[in-house]
Amino acid sequence: MNFQGFFDPDNKLWSALSRFLDILLINVLTVLCSVPVITAGAAFSAGWRDMMKVTAGAQTYTIKGYFTAFRDNFKKATLLWLIVLAAGLVTAGDIYFTFTVEANTAVYILRYLFYVVAILVAFVCLWVFPLTVTFENTIPETLKNALLMSIRHLPWTFL
């Protein structure tokens, strides 16, 4: 058995293991930075940007890169998060309301309409943070593009 090159840092095994651990670290950082709910948007944005750098092989310092991305996107990503969170809470409240009132045809129609709105809010939430770190747009443009991208790439959105 030949072990020459096994401990070489450029070995494919060590390179793959290093990437796996970087991805694991980014996920742990994202969860920890999302604990105060207010900072979840910045945490998701930083996680996305760092994850793309790691998978492209361009990331050298995972923790430093994560917190740099967190700081760079904090204001815009937090505002987008609060908008998406508010939309989700309002929609959830509307759905809850349809279960508390006397059921009739109009209530059923409203309930299913609110389900559609909730799905659209979830779609926007999936796309808004990657778009935030990838493109420089205003907040309304980012929200509009997230909705359009989620519908345009529906199979990827569901996946």
Description:
By secondary structure, this protein is mainly α. The chain contains 6 helices and no strands. Helix 1 (12-34) runs antiparallel to helix 2 and helix 4 (105-134) crosses helix 5. The longest helix is centred in the middle third of the chain and has 39 residues, at 62-100. The chain is elongated, with a radius of gyration of 20 Å. The protein starts with 11 loop residues before the first helix and ends with a helix.
What is the gist of this entry?
The chain has helices at 12-34, 40-56, 62-100, 105-134, 139-152, 154-158. The chain has 159 residues and is an all-alpha fold.
Roughly how many Å apart are the termini? 42 Å
Specify the structural class. mainly alpha
Q: What is the radius of gyration?
A: 20 Å
**Per the principal axes of the C-alpha atoms, what is the gross shape?**
elongated
The tally of helices reads 6
Order of helices and strands: HHHHHH
The fraction of residues assigned to DSSP E strands is under 5%
Find the count of extended strands (DSSP E, 2+ residues): 0
Low-confidence stretches: none
Could you report the average pLDDT, rounded to the nearest whole number?
A: 91
Helix content bin? over 70%
**Strand count, sense and closure of the main sheet?**
none
